[in-house]
Amino acid sequence: MDIDAWVWWLIGAVGLGIPLVVTAMPEFGMLAVGAVAASATAAVGGGAVAQTIVFVAVSVALIAVVRPIAARHRSQRPELASGIDALKGRSAVVLERVDASGGRIKLAGEVWSARPLDTEQSFEAGQQVDVVEIDGATAVVM
């Protein structure tokens, strides 16, 4: 039983897919795609030289184009705010009068102590306020 060249290329692609999964190195995936392209070339009757050229060209093109894009995305960290940083800029509802001596607001479903950014300002119960910053356990609002 003689196995066609396109089958060998698919076996090679699967063989390159295994280290891709084990090591999470995307280069193996790009080489596997090159092997699939060479398999397609073999299936349509391309010779050994054409198959090799297609494998090398597709693999190199993917590595040259996709790898820098992936590296750039990997180095950029998502701008996800968490903890008190996630509360800055949110709206809250005044529960008890907020003035220079303090007060209470409902922020993100929780009751917080609050004080105004401008000590001359005050907010009455029911008003919407914006959280400017969190100072310890106190929300600074405006």
Automatic annotation (TrEMBL):
It is a multi-pass membrane protein. Its main location: membrane. The chain crosses the membrane at residues 6-22, 53-70. It is found in: Membrane. It holds the Pfam family NfeD. It comes from the Bacteria. Residues 85-141 form the NfeD-like C-terminal domain. One of its GO terms (cellular component) is plasma membrane. The keyword Transmembrane applies. Keywords: Hydrolase, Membrane, Protease, Transmembrane, Transmembrane helix. PANTHER family: INNER MEMBRANE PROTEIN YBBJ (PTHR33507). This is Membrane protein implicated in regulation of membrane protease activity.
